[in-house]
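We close this part of the discussion by returning to an individual protein. The sequence in question and its structure tokens are set out directly beneath this paragraph:
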Amino acid sequence: MASSRKNKQLYIDAEALSTMALVQEGLIAPVTKLMTEAEAREVRESKMYKGVPFPFPFILAPKGKQNEACLKTLKKGETVELIHERHVVGKLTVEETFSIDPSERLICIYGTADESHPGVKKTIKRLGNIAVAGKYEVDYPLISSAKKTVQEKIKEQGAKNISALMLAANPLNRAHERMIRQALDQSDMVVLFLLKPFTNEGLRYDIRHEAIMTFIENFLPQNKVIVVPLENSYIFAGYNELVLDALVAKNYGCNRMVIGSNHAGLGLYYDHDKLNSIFDASKDIKIDIRTVEQYVYCNKCRTLVSTSTCPHGQHHHIHYHSPSILQLIKEGMMPPSVLVRREVSATILSALFPERFAHLQEIYDALMPNDGLIEEHSEKDFYINLMGLYQTTSLT
């Protein structure tokens, strides 16, 4: 978008831009615009918007001296440019501006305004004291193209029962695989929303995406699972996460959402002295939410089982604890294949440690069985075959 020095400008960060794009594409409907002061007050008090659960007001209140100076001068009907990383990414026609209490908003989102809370600590740095309401347009191809791709795939497959799965897959493990397969068993198609947070924690998005695609392309039916990036901005916090996940899934075209029974946001919460859960909220969102049991590997059953059906005690269970598995990978170790499929481990390790071995071909030829042919092998091939050696048990 072209800019003019005469235009007033507001500077927004990547999280604000991404969230505004989600709303613009109708993916958090019925929210379709920045809320006015009256609408924000009503949502804050009722936790509802147009008859649908919504946990907090959708507003834009960017922090910064330049932003505050601009917001103080805006009049109804004026157009203001939205700037991100020195580029014009949109425009907003002002309906009104109004003061907000940052602490009150933080409590709405996180349930606390205590700056020791990691989410609060991060958000307070970007939250100003003045909000602006009005119609806007932003340019953010990632979200618009993802929505179009999903709609085209649903139409192409003629899918009727479509399940959504929200996964960080950090890293993808065998329990995740079981969840995906179970969702697929009950659906014509699965839309797998791969979380893309605005932090550098864990594995990079591109590595997690490639790992998931390795599994899908080699071990699942073709054209039944589509992977969509879901940028996990600050609004997807605490209990809000499941409500907003349900809205996003519904607006992408899914009629079912599958979540793990140990999901952190699944617990009950109090609203106006009434005990509620995501299942109460989903009735108004009109999406069927189903839980799957926690999976473990039982060394007595010798297979993947749910904790509710296995008769053996916890001392026989191997848990799929993502942070611990990730720690192994970050140290350059291949997780046992009972935890992570060897093809997935190979994809991740070869991306994390490129050109790790100075004489890979020599090591490969010296250690691995072959047909006597000289062939070039990648690091991914090496890891896959190395796991094959780990699984050779006759001498153990």
Summary: Residues 268-275 have pLDDT under 50 and may be disordered.
